[in-house]
């Protein structure tokens, strides 16, 4: 008796095979189709703008200005950039063919990978879903997006609207939490892009190993901010605006690129702290201007940092917490113990430790003593220090005299290194992440060099 076909053990078998068939049909390869999907995304971002403000406010209490700057507007800019450049990125690229193969042509031909899976995170719940989605579509793939269940309004918005604006044959949204994520990972994907914590990243990698599924991991870290002595009041105020903006005005510090801690010379610390205090007061005077802590779990995690006796003693600004409203006051710490949780874990919230060093150059050793971060920020006019930071530290990005804006520079790759992740995307890098660069070599029958073949003499054969 012939064996019965295996019953699918997990619920997504037909979803994946359906998408594989769509890819097989060639529809997603067509450049006109890819452009139509990107235009669909743009329409979604324009026509549903108000709804997007609402869901982001619902999930995270984000102000519309912040939502537009970090998510909606950033996406519009990025998708337009992709639309403008797609033809060039998708064109075959010539490589030099060796003389012994004359006449020949060598080409790099990008081809779609197939069916890709995108896991997004809750802190930028639109951006972290739609940015990789647009890159994967531009590269000609079919895509499943698994939004974070911790931003449920945005997840529901994506599930309702993506099928209306994008080709529902090739783009699917799957809702659910960890269990659904694990079920999805039982299947063979042509690529997985995961944004989230290192803890879940490990689970994803382990599951991907079964099918040798390639995975890009966009994880977190402790992003340091090195602040050199700044001679003028103006420079100090500008630096502080940008530091406060890259901490408290970025989802209340709940962002992978948010400044985690500051390194500053002992002598300059008091002046810096004074300006930080007045600036954060100003930036957060209107409560709607700061996003809220996601949920009770994160509130408890953040307040537990401040319960540590020695950490509590290091508070120089803020420090109060309100369990009823899940509010953590913007807080500045001065030299909390380096072995306390607030200095060993990623903070992901509105607490900013200031760590003093004797000389600013010592900060590089400090940064090197920790896992490689997603971003390093430094405020300085000293070109020698800038070169040393670039050359003597390792991170996904280095930004001088600003914070977080590197995220919206389409020409720059976005991603981590070491424990902060692997695989870079945004702009052309997204296209490449979701493409196979196929090496194509075309030779003719015109010339034949017999020295390549036996019988050989004792000479060396150069190709
Ligand atoms: P998380 O790691 O818990 O969840 C991320 C995604 O994984 C969600 O879609 C979730 O449903 C899914 N998931 C959870 N458990 C799973 C499982 N067992 N199997 C499969 N999928 C599962 O998210 P978090 O911890 O709240 O995220 C915070 C972290 O994400 C921080 O470290 C932050 O720095 C990082 N982050 C990184 C970036 C980046 O672009 N590098 C952006 C945002 C956040």
Description:
This protein is α/β, with parallel strands linked by helices. The protein has helices at residues 13-24, 31-47, 49-60, 64-90, 127-138, 152-165, 178-184, 198-209, 233-245, 269-283, 296-307, 309-313, 341-344, 362-368, 383-392, 427-433, and strands at 93-95, 104-112, 115-119, 142-146, 171-173, 191-195, 215-218, 224-227, 261-265, 315-317, 321-322, 327-328, 331-334, 351-357, 375-379, 397-400, 421-422, 435-443. The chain has a seven-stranded mixed sheet with strand order 10-13-14-9-8-15-16, with helices on both faces. The chain has a six-stranded mixed sheet with strand order 5-4-3-6-7-17, sandwiched between helices. Strands 1-2-18 form a three-stranded antiparallel sheet. Strand 13, helix 13 (341-344) and strand 14 form a beta-alpha-beta unit. Helix 3 packs across helix 4. The structure holds nicotinamide-adenine-dinucleotide. Nicotinamide-adenine-dinucleotide binds next to helix 7 and helix 8. Nicotinamide-adenine-dinucleotide (NAD) binds at residues 119-123, 128, 146, 148-149, 177-178, 181-182, 185, 195-197, 200, 203-204, 218-220, 256, 346, 348, 374, 416, 421.
